[in-house]
Amino acid sequence: MSDDLVTLEDVEAARDRIADVVHRTPLDTSTTFAELSGAAAVGLKLENVQRTGSFKIRGAYNKMAQLSGEERERGVISSSAGNHAQGVALAGDLLGIDATIVVPEVTPAAKVEATRGYGAEVIVEGDIYERSYEYALERAEETGETFVHPFDDEAIVAGQGTIGLELLEQFSDLDTVLVSIGGGGLISGIGTVLKAHEPGIRVVGVQPEGALHAKPSLERDELHVLEDVDTVAEGIADARLLETTFRHVRERVDEVVGVSDREIATAVALLAERAKTVAEGAGAAPVAALLSDDLNVEGERVGAVISGGNVNLSEHAELTRTGLFELGRYVDARLALEGWPATLEAVVETVEEKGAELDRLERARRGPNDHPNRIPVTVGLEGSGPEHLRDVLEALSERDGIEVVERGLDP
Ligand SMILES: Cc1ncc(COP(=O)(O)O)c(C=O)c1O
Q: Helix H segments across 4-128?
């Protein structure tokens, strides 16, 4: 490993180390996303179907496989509430190394269980992530366990870079590659490979607007640290790059694009619908950038790394619904019904006749503006677009006994 930056050879060595345990994930070409973005072709690198549901096993295994016999004996420790925890846990299991993961108190039980399921010991310590991180570092000092950093480590960067080697083999003549950035380990590795093979490939980082630190860091060539982060994409809700990743990003990333949470939700919905792919927010962010007006990919061959799919189903449903709202394909409306329950049947019938989907129908709490002799209900309707939904609402309001009191969206 060079003193300075991770090299292509480091990544190739990582590939040999992890080859037997990590999936070579598929690359899915998508005409839909090419059409929607104006690109000549789009290739989705599906790390959401990687073992543990994200790319993190690549770096964790590469790091842990290089520990000495003595270090392995002492075990490893890390702090993470997310995908890195599962990567370290599985790598520990495969290599026979005891792994301990420190998670903050707010971590959902399901994530704690998933990490335990891979054989790691989980310690719940700290009200926020930083406390868990400090605790893990202190404990590593005391016990001699090796701390496995989620991104700021050359071996982790080299491991994540193996995605770049596969991408080059699977999708030729790349013009632009889109990669989400949290702490920057993933893009540092992929950027290393792409720039070594073909310096002309444009490496674009993607961050949520609510955690947009790498963009100012790159543009001002000065590490930018955010005070707060706020995004649905919790996998990339970081406040800063660190020393190792900043060194790589400034050399190997061309630009960073910010995307809104709404754009991320739309990307989650479109990936599910068009590519039959379950992505978490962090995994869908590159598709959000692809479809954003802030990035021009006209006529290009574009690779997008779908980095993870660890999202629980109810959260996925929420994101999808928000995405449908954004696409003008979902509307919430409040109706006042006269002659309940016969009018209820008329609602169901009308929506069906119009070829729309009645996603939700609930009796609403009566408010001061509601007519005392009408039953207020709220409905959620899915349709093919704003015009279709407008037409459905129009048809509802024309039925006897149904008044559309409020429309949640444009339609
Ligand atoms: C799904 C997913 N995508 C992207 C990232 C970003 O990786 P990095 O922190 O190396 O930039 C993470 C990090 O946890 C992640 O979990």
A: 8-18, 31-37, 56-64, 69-74, 83-95, 109-117
